Amino acid sequence: MPDYQSSPRVLLVEDSASNALVYRSYLEADYSVVTAGTGSEALEKLASQRFDLVLTDVRLPDMTGLDILDEIQRTEDPLPVVVMTAHGSVDVVVDSMQRGASDFLSKPFEKARLLVTLENILKKEQLKEIVTEYEKSFQRDAFHEMVGASLPMQNVYRIIESASKSNATVFITGESGTGKELCASALHAESLRRDKPFIALNCAAIPKDLLESEIFGHVKGAFTGATGSREGAAARASGGTLFLDEIGEMPMDLQSKLLRFIQSGTFQPVGANREVKVDVRFICATNRDPLEEVRAGRFREDLYYRLHVIPLEMPPLRQRGNDSLLIGERMLKQCTVEENKRFRGFSEEVKRILLDYSWPGNVRELGNVIRNIVVLNDGELVRPDMLPDSVRSGGRAVAKSSHAYAMERTPSQIDRQPLNGAVAPQPPEANGDIRPLWVEEKEIIERAIDRCGGNVPRAAAFLEISASTIYRKKQQWEAV
């Protein structure tokens, strides 16, 4: 970045010695001025010295000022150029601006006009440098264990950094496999509680009758099989962070106990007659639409508003641009080392396939595909024939259950061959009265999206389904 605290350096290119003397007198109080009388002399000085701005006449003995402008524009970091001309035709002005000039001055001009022009240009350059440095400082291709350089992920990183220093509850939403637990872990690692425990509990992976004990613990004899006291996740997370993944799977009766725990900071272990007080920061996540769950009566509204303080949505991989390739390359490198293989990258065709595929299973699916490739193959480059059929064919070769397959075929496609000697039932005549369910559903959803101006989440809200359901069904229709 130029040092604007000292006097900016200006290269003045003017073949008239008298004009050069006048312009130099205008500038020397605020700028460090170097003069050149020809175009070649100006280019030599540009090659050997540092300048912040160039002020050049159009007409020079050996070339034009526009030729100098062209040479400057070919450099990696072009300097701002102000063109001076006594021949201020519209064509000259337009030509200079199209070639990249920052501004122009028609001779003769006053000192004030010159100073204002240069001052505005240098302020603009300084602001541009500041913005560029700011963007560079935030443009990351990884953040803790999360990998991604796309704009949606940059937004996730910034929310994490902003929310991490607070004790406010963070509610993470996103499709399965988008990295919600990695996001929760990053929130903890960035927080002031980073040196305290991070306890993660998957509410969908624990039997409902044991979930209360897993969260709050139990005392000896509290239920059959409780041969000793056990500390729950809430107590183990004291001073740190408690992450409740797939919180939408929590039974309603346990939701009320969790609400009281969040409000008071106290809980009662199963079978205990005393309360325990802890200091816990809550993070929760779900792959469902929480408002839809509230409307359906499966999730308490008061608990939703208690938890939904800082919402954070993890974007699906299909909305993350080139991140699938970036993540895939890192996973390939890691798996190659673990499996002692020779892979060093993807072929260009494989890169295109990975970028085009919609990844319904998100990052988790991508990880499984990379592991599959490395375990079953070897070589220096991953070739298209090494990819699973489902990825290579863009998802159209995904195996379907017999029920799903039957639902997705038209009556004319249904197998009519006799089964065990019996006559297969014939479908109704194609009179348009009865159509497959998926066709009717497709038309309803597409009509809703069209009426919502292409806004899928808004259409999903009106249809009282989740947006992820619509995306999944659209993938299924495209695969038919």
From TrEMBL:
**Ubl conjugation among keywords:** no
Name the source's superkingdom. Answer: Bacteria
Every copy of the Response regulatory domain together lies at 9-122
The alphabetized UniProt keywords are: ATP-binding, DNA-binding, Nucleotide-binding, Phosphoprotein, Transcription, Transcription regulation
Q: Where is the Sigma-54 factor interaction domain?
A: 146-375
Per the record's keyword annotation, is Transcription regulation included, yes or no?
Answer: yes
Q: Which CDD domains match?
A: AAA, REC_NtrC1-like
| Residue numbers bearing the 4-aspartylphosphate modification | D57
Using the record, list the residue span of the signal peptide; answer none if the entry has no such feature.
none
Concerning PROSITE patterns, the annotation shows:
RESPONSE_REGULATORY, SIGMA54_INTERACT_2, SIGMA54_INTERACT_3, SIGMA54_INTERACT_4
Q: Name one Pfam family in it.
A: HTH_8
Name of protein: Sigma-54 dependent transcriptional regulator
Q: Record the organism.
A: Marinobacter qingdaonensis
Q: What is the lineage of its organism?
A: Bacteria, Pseudomonadati, Pseudomonadota, Gammaproteobacteria, Pseudomonadales
